[in-house]
Write a structure and sequence with these properties.
The mean pLDDT is about 85. The chain has a single domain, classed as HPT domain (Four Helix Bundle (Hemerythrin (Met), subunit A), Up-down Bundle). About 65% of the residues lie in helices and about 0% in strands. The chain is mainly alpha-helical.
Length: about 170
Amino acid sequence: MGKPAPPSPQKTLVVPNLLKKKTGEGGCCDASVEKAQRLIESNNIDFLPAARDLLDMLAAYAARYRTQQAKGEKEVFKLLYPAMQLNAQGRMFHYPLISDMADVLVNFLENIEELNADALDIVDAHHTAITLIVRRKIAGNGGSAEKAVYDDLVRACRRYHKKYGLDDE
């Protein structure tokens, strides 16, 4: 056997970092970060109308799946969008429980292989739970009942993963 061929010379391309040129060097000053944090903590924007719209969107896409009017990976992204928005915005507007429940849904949707009837039941359960949070205007982390609902959602996702062989264990 002969020797392996030497590696071919590699050419390195240096691409200009346009974003860095626009933003400059270094990070944000502490005063700017503190000001942004104060604005987030003290905002009094009513998030609930937006949350209701996102929940309506989630329900509409789930209903389309149930009637088989929507199929395919592209359609799963339509379910992911409102879930991701609820996840990202809930905590910012003083509804961390919405973010936590939506995070469970986002992780679930990102890790399933198909959107079958069982998966849609889990989407519906998340929708129902988050809708109750919105209707009752439960800001903060909620109480023991809300924690129990959150835990039930997590367990439902785990059961689904186990049933369909998606668990890592």
